[in-house]
Write a structure and sequence with these properties.
The structure holds 2 protein chains of 2 kinds. Chain A is α+β, with helices and mostly antiparallel strands. Chain A has 7 helices and 12 strands. Chain A has helices at about 10-15, 20-35, 90-95, 135-150, 180, 195-205, 270-275; strands spanning about 40-50, 55-60, 70-75, 80-85, 155, 160, 170, 190, 225-230, 235-240, 245-250, 260-265. In chain A, strand 10 and strand 11 form a beta hairpin. The relative contact order of chain A is 0.16. By secondary structure, chain B is of the alpha+beta class. In chain B, the strands form 4 sheets. Chain B has an 8-stranded mixed beta sheet, with helices on both faces. In chain B, strands 5-8 form a two-stranded antiparallel sheet. Chain B has 9 helices and 14 strands. The longest helix of chain B is centred in the N-terminal third of the chain and has 18 residues, at about 40-60. Chain B has helices spanning about 1-5, 10-25, 40-60, 75-85, 90-105, 175-180, 205-220, 245-250, 255-260; strands at about 115-120, 125-135, 155-160, 170, 225, 230-235, 240-245, 265-270, 285, 290-295, 315-320, 330-335, 340-345, 350-355. In chain B, strand 9 (about 285) and strand 10 (about 290-295) form a beta hairpin. Classes of the chains: A alpha+beta, B alpha+beta. At the A-B interface, helix 2 and strand 9 of A face helix 2, helix 3 and strand 11 of B.
Chain lengths: ~280, ~400
Amino acid sequence: MELHNIEKVSPLSGYTLNIEEISGLEVAMLQRKREENLPGKLLFWGKIFGATQDYLVVLYIDSSDEFPVKKYYYCTTSDYTLRAAPQLSAEYESQAEGITSQFTGDPSFMAYNGEEPEEPADPDDPDAPPPKEVFREVHRLSFIIKQIDHDCSVIPRGALVVDATKKVIFNNYYSGLSYHTSAELRAYYHFRFPENPQGIAAMKKPGIIKADFLDCITKDVPTEMWTVSHNSSGTASYIRNLYWEGYNFYAMIGTSEYGGAYFGSGVPNLDLAFML
Amino acid sequence: MKILLDRPGNAYDMFELISAEVKENPLNPEIEANKSVPPTAEEVEKQLAWAVACSKLLKRPDEPPEVNVKFPDLMDDLMLYEWAGVSFGRSEAYRLYLSIKSFSETLPPEVERLRFFGIIKTRGLPYYIIEGLNPDDEEGIDEMQQEGRSGANKFTYWVTQSVETNSWTKLPNVTMAQIVAARKFKKYMSGNLDAPISSFPPFPGNESNYLRSQIALICGATSVSPAGYFELNEDDDPPTVKLAEAETLNETFPKTAQELKEPDAWVHHEIELNALGRCTALPEQLDDNGDPIEPDEPVEVAPPLKGIEPEQWAFRVSPGGSGEHPASLVVARSLVFPGAMAIAAARRFVNIYVGYGMVYSATTYSPPLPGALQTEWVPGEDEEPLVETEDVRTDPTPPKEEGEEDED
């Protein structure tokens, strides 16, 4: 979501960023945008809690391709410089999947199997070997961000359309959900390239496709991991995910404003089936 | 027409979209693509009800109310919460403050002061919870099953799910069995206080009891404060915890962020519930002769004002980094109950909980196995085996009847 809209999701999640974090992120986002000449949008994606410090993640959406491409940047709460989340090899991905402990907060942490944490290299020593490429927390972070985004990123119906050139774009004339539609889970879709065969086929039809080409969140198993509710004034709808506890999405009824963010430990709720 | 009015930047691309919108509405092509749909009756009713309820909260009372019970200065605490990254939405929080304030005017003075405990999220609406001293002692409770005001039921809790309707429901007192059972499973609450909890092992109570047990567990495990704030009152036996004297407070505080960052600067000011679900010792049981019965495995009660376990807490200084200064606040985040936080700054501290009420476990949950089947009774060594008594046999033929015969 937009960084300045972060309070909109607070009544639901109970979390927000403090002034220091917002201030640091504003600077970091603008710097990254100009240094890399990014034409697309930079949005706040979420905060992952760690033992010594937290990670703040920023999402960059590039709408120039057939489907919006997402790129993630992260920074820690002690150093507000956005770095790109590294691409992962298949081996690193499987290694990341097996880890269930909490994040430590140190991106270079690699002692996952009870190994000794490595000694920091002496910068003045010319003979010191460069740090070897091992699986570090930053790789795990990158994996978790992709997982969470794949499973949780929500977009309301009608906000993404396929235009006549078969490009998926944000709908400039998106007018928001109505009161009744916003209370139903069917009105929300995953913001990712569709994985269901009907959706992919629908995208190939001629003309403009307004909706129903993305994966609906009701098709997730189990559907009960999504909860939808209205706020107390009935002016916004809220969506929460119970598997990735901490993902919150809001959509203002009748307006085109919406956004989602993740505030959590980065560890999925594997006991979900017992808790429902 | 719309393009002429709006003049979007990429008119050529937008034309296709607008044309599609127009084609969908062949009867009324002048309708603008994003004309708002008129609100439905339900929507109007809900929003109006909310607005009316909130304006009641916001209305200034005619005469100043009596202040029997101190209400928390949420506005001040909000600053502390925000540094910890906790927020409920600023305007929503103000309405919450008004709601707590007007509720405090209805409470008896024995409650003394209200504290905002936090929110527990459910699958439906969240519970906003406030805590105050238990005003009345429950009559006729069995001390072996439930503690009174000296133990786990020292505080009583009120919850609401909608801040503006200003109706706070009191939660029932908690029993030992409920605490012990609540530790054995994890369930999301549904958001309805009367809902049953279907769990294994079965929970003795409904959702309001389960909520109360979770609150008791969280409060016992995560009520921490900077050392020196509370001290032991040696006059009571066993010693109880009380607020330190003003002079002692002035000497110890304000503490700097550097001091508060260390785990040994914090203590638990509430007693943690032990394995039996108690914070005071079991009352002595006397047998027939009047001698006390010793339990086979006595369960220890945690001592008051215990120091915190460093592995269970993570500390943050806010503002940190280059903005750090001696009066920076320190946020202690619990790793055992994720979502429980204690925030201390100079002379103040608050405890807050935001979460689902679940405890963190490094391993995934597996349900307990069902109990072992009872075996058949087997006679002891010198005992005789049981012998089934012979059946009493009676002749079923009916006595000879004079007169009519009964045809079956």
